[in-house]
Amino acid sequence: MEDLKLQVYEANMDLPKYGLVTFTWGNVSAIDRKSGYFVIKPSGVEYEKLHPEDMVVVDLEGNIVEGSLNPSSDTPTHLELYKAFPNIWAVVHTHSSWATSWAQAGRGIPCYGTTHADYMYGEIPCLRCLNEEEINGAYEKNTGILIADYYKDKDYMAVPACLCKNHGPFAWGKNAREAVHHSVVLEEVAKMAARCEQINPHVKPAPRELLDKHYLRKHGANAYYGQKPGRYISPILS
Ligand SMILES: O=C(CO)[C@@H](O)[C@H](O)COP(=O)(O)O
């Protein structure tokens, strides 16, 4: 687990490096699928005071397996995503300001150009706000269940990120580095899309041919994790 702790530490340190976090508003985790243990940033620890040995190891029941600090408050959300998405190995949550602005506005981010299309096969969805019972219950767990439920009939790697209304963005990937990369892409396309709509309020999403051209040439319809041909269900095709 020491290697995974170092990977997760480095990925967490990339959050301030890429301007995705203010104070401690973000966390990265990654899972060892053999043991079912995942490593996550400790709660409330400033990045500049963070060390690899501070990372917390948690099992898929939510028990702390290793570590003296409390795991991120978002641990239950990460946990639900690892249970629901067997082909992911890392999760990132931030409050990056452009993506969080779309989340607060309750809007998904349309694909307006090839920057978006290269990584996300269509609109980045904004999921509904949790209801009163979900908010007053196990909020973070319910956030993970909401995301898992949205993607249950979709290819969660075709659009490896989403927005949770009145909260913020979550992203995932095949390792911590890729999950952070998706978070950076998300924040950049959120910024571009907001400005695009300011410049031209009547702007339309990019044509489907452009989306297909850019996404599929990079990822292919079944590029991810050996998915069976014909099984491919993208968020916008289902
Ligand atoms: O979404 C939230 C709070 O609204 C959290 O993501 C915090 O922004 C980070 O919490 P820790 O990881 O430090 O517990």
Task: Walk me through the structure.
It is an enzyme of class 5 (isomerase). Residues 6-194 form the Class II aldolase/adducin N-terminal domain. By secondary structure, the chain is an alpha+beta fold. It has one domain: Class II aldolase/adducin N-terminal domain (L-fuculose-1-phosphate Aldolase), CATH 3.40.225. The chain is 39% helix and 14% strand. The protein is built from eight helices and eight strands, in the order αββββαβααβααββαα. It has helices at 2-17, 75-84, 97-105, 114-117, 132-136, 139-150, 176-199, 208-219, and strands spanning 26-32, 37-40, 56-58, 64-66, 90-94, 126-127, 161-164, 168-173. The protein has an eight-stranded mixed β-sheet, sandwiched between helices. A hairpin with a 5-residue loop joins strand 3 (56-58) and strand 4. Helix 2 (75-84) runs parallel beside helix 6 (139-150) and helix 3 (97-105) crosses helix 7. The protein is globular and about 55 Å long. The chain binds 5-O-phosphono-D-xylulose. 5-O-phosphono-D-xylulose binds at residues 24-25, 27, 41, 43-44, 72-74, 93, 95.
